[in-house]
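The data layer described in this paper is built around a simple, fixed record for each protein. Because each token names a local backbone shape, the row as a whole describes the fold. We quote a single record here, exactly as it is kept in our systems:

***
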Amino acid sequence: METQSGTPTLPSTTDPGTSSLDGPVVANWIFNVFGVPMYVIGMSGNILTLVVLLSSRSFRATAFGMLLMFLSVSDMGVLNTGHIRHCILGLTWDRVWIRDLCQWCCKIQTYLTYVFVQLSPWTLCLVTLERALAVTCPMKTAYLCTKRRMFGAWLAIFVIVTSLNLVLIKKMDIISDQVIVDLNMTTQSPRTGEFVTTGINDNDTVQVPDPYCKFVSGDFFMSRVMPIIYSLLAFIIPGVVMLTLNIILYRGIRQALKTRASIRSGHENDNNASNRLNSDTRMLVGISVLFILTNLPVSVHYVYFHYWVGDGDLKRAIYSVVLIISYINNAFNFVIYCFRGRKFRAALRDLVSCNRKRIEHQNSCDSQGRATCRCTELTAIIT
């Protein structure tokens, strides 16, 4: 059985006849039925999100829109490193594991998986911080949350995350374990989870090589401590930060609503600005809640996994379920944007309307229609 980092557990000597589940079959079924459609929807939604954000000046000109673009790129990175390898494993049914193809596939693929899985939640934390400051300190937001400052903060996060995980390039490798097998006994491969039975004589044994991508043997820190640190950095700490910032957001919105209710009506511009702010905030709260709900099961399982002694097939099945739930966060943020973000829906409508006008009036661009021409050219580029 493999964790999200690609590290197998120790071989199980449990007889397959005593297990009520076939772990590899359950895992393949889950990623074939749910994982592949989720990957297609997630990539399509994130690409469309980038197109909408880039085509909307109200998003391009703000730090909030810039950070949402970084979040979409990070989510696509998670889908193309962590999620896709499980989909390939399920689709092939012959145990094609990307990390086992070569030494550098093992090192680079593991490194990129760790980087993107940690970069995505911390980018979301930065977006949440920007909205919290916009709600609680509206007069200081223009100074504190400029595009340059937010880009610098995100770049610092990127450098820290990529630097912390460089140790994986050194510590991950293709290792061929020599497993001693009794020729009339049943053993389970630590890489594929399959049971293999060979039998000639009752008392004979044989050494069976089983190469797979794993931490260098004998490194207690990498095999036992590193997974806990990974879970803290990728799930637990970002979840706590987002929960705290969302509580601050909720209290700030309530206070803002009370303040607005006490002011005289007729300030249309102020109301419109407040509505735009609330639209962004509602959208962000939805994204944060989705992250916490979908990543809580896998974070608990990941911390407990290395101390769980029991049926290997049951562990494999449960891990597949919590893992596919965690990828919902990276695949379906677009749905939150559409249902909770008024500004995003408006930008999407403008993009669709602009595209429709391009098709209907592609030959009617004249000197008085420069704005339409620009819209037509932009749409032609991004579509």
Remarks:
- The chain has 14 helices and four strands.
